[in-house]
Amino acid sequence: MISPIRGRYAPSPTGGLHLGNARTALVAWLHTRSRGGSFVLRVEDLDSLRCKKGVFEINLAELRWLGLDWDEGPDRGGDFGPYLQSLRTEYYQAMLEKLQPWVSPCYLSRKDLQTLASAPHGLIEGYGLAERALNESLQTEKIASGKQPSLRLRGPQTSVAFEDLLMGPQAFDVGDFVLLRADGEWAYQLAVVADDLAMQISEVVRGDDLLPSTAAQVWLYQLLQRPAPQFLHLPLLLDAQGMRLSKRSGSLTLNEIQKTGLSSERLLGFFAHSLGLLAQSEPLSLPELLTLYSPEKLSREPYQLRPGELGLSA
User: How far apart, in Å, are the Cα atoms of 213 and each of 15, 182, 219?
Assistant: First the structure.
């Protein structure tokens, strides 16, 4: 029997998981397991330029070292596979067909968009009515030159509201956004909604840097007349300089942290403290942390690493 509570974590295999990635994965796991739900591991490997062969296997090993497990995934299979986005094209094509009444080709390049001095601010992807008009005026010329279009969903050009379990009421202006890129690769907004619907995901835990993207995804759910999952967006983990951790900036990965000899229990205790679940950082087992977890206890503020904290350079 399929559990009605279905959570997921969906890493992109562009490198090892850093502390921020691992912290988000941990809360996603805790949020689902604390209520007896099923946990899904899905790999978001659509970006062929950035995703690297063999990395998702490393990511899975990193999560196992932290103590996390999952009921479905690329290494376990399941009723809603495949669990690699690169193998799920048919799902994206089917959703694109359902959305056809609201889809338009866009021939604008980045340079074209930069020519608009009064480009709208605050819209998802910054694509508003002025961009629509420019696209229409240049379309004939672009087609004649052989330019391949992206496919954009016509957004409402107004605010889309939703309720976040941790951050409360949210609203963001949603413009037109890409579903299929000009190079033929599927865009994140379409793929994530198609997968969460197909896999019957009921809750999504991720970083609060994705709050604006959630508004675009909620708009997709509304067009499809399907209920959106429950969202919980975590404040980010910041480095000692106050910058967000990232793979591109070379933040330490779990694989590298493991090699330093730091125990997973000490890392779990640090995560619990940074999340507001523990008054001070101290070693903690995953079962112990599970008993402490409650979404009401989670901090709404980002946590900045102190210099030398954990004896690591994040």
Answer: 22, 20, 10
